[in-house]
Amino acid sequence: xxxxxxxxxxxxxxAAGLATPALSQGRIExxxxxxxxxxxxxxxxAAQKVADRxxxxxxxxxxxxxxxxxxxxxxxxxxxxxxxxxxxxxHGVPSFWISKSPGIGFFGSFPFGMTVYERQAWxxxxxxxxxxxxxxxxxxxxxxxxxxxxxxxxxxxxxEIRSIDDFRGLRFRTAGLGGEMFRRAGASVxxxxxxxxxxxxxxxxxxxxxxxxPFSDAPxxxxxxxxxxxxxxxxxxxxxxxxxxxxxxxxxxxxxxxNAVRFACQSVAExxxxxxxxxxxxxxxxxxxxxxxxxxEAPRDLLVAFGNSAGQMLAEYRNHQDPMVKRxxxxxxxxxxxxxxxxxxxxxxxxxxxxxxxxxxx
Length: 362
Fold this sequence. Notes:
Helix content: 40-55%
CATH architecture of the domain at 7-147 and 237-279: 3-Layer(aba) Sandwich
Number of strands: 12
Strand content: 15-25%
Oligomer: single chain
Shape: globular
Low-confidence stretches: 1-20
Order of helices and strands: HEEHEHEHHEEHEHEHEHEEHHEHHH
CATH topology of the domain at 7-147 and 237-279: D-Maltodextrin-Binding Protein, domain 2
């Protein structure tokens, strides 16, 4: 889809309104609000996929109607709408809710932290899911992971960045704990919903922006005004998508429907994650060949500055005044550090071997 088509769909249901869930002949009607323009490739499509999967797995006993960003609730208000019961569930990313608690951010990503597969291992086998449930319950929300867009790109820059000095002072659209890392490294951080990034970059209100990765960035049109596309996106080595269900609505479900919703989220998470892995390389090749985009590796001194800022943040969270934040940060750090050496030998070792000058399937 092109950028204009995505944005034009945004206001269609503005008058539809939100209300408490209705029961129609034993069917539960849920209203989902999202952070995304309708049908934005990647997260916008994924949100609809989650809604449809819940309906399919529950055999229509739960029907989820989706409202895109701004149709009823502004994107940043999705969490509060669900917590208050104005909406039944949202589709979003944890990075938008860290003003509630920095502990929430760990369940989406942490700078220089775990990849999607490491984070999922922590969630499913390292105690992460219990912590996830506990901190969201503070706000009356039941969370589920519904996929991951994989390693982000560092972002789109209007001019080349040759050193840390070129980065300092940039007005940079970003979000979450990665945004805090960039701020500490000298950027002026601006958080904008997806649908507002292009206009801000085009007008010069911002100098650079990161959103996700090639598959979802391309439809936003950011390459039309910034040709320098930097990697690696150390601010988000993974980027989890989630739904959050109003806790009262969740608790009211019978056990069989709770199990069905849980299974729906697990099944769609693998599908969404692997789709990003399949689509990103294709989208990047097209950005380079058709649109003149230049992928650039970030300077080493810039990455070192980012890493030191991320380390300062982690130390602060592991000594946070909120015991819940401390527990989350400790659990995350221990799991990540235990995984580090093995991943360098296994996954990274294989990637390095594939890059050797060998004749394999050429």
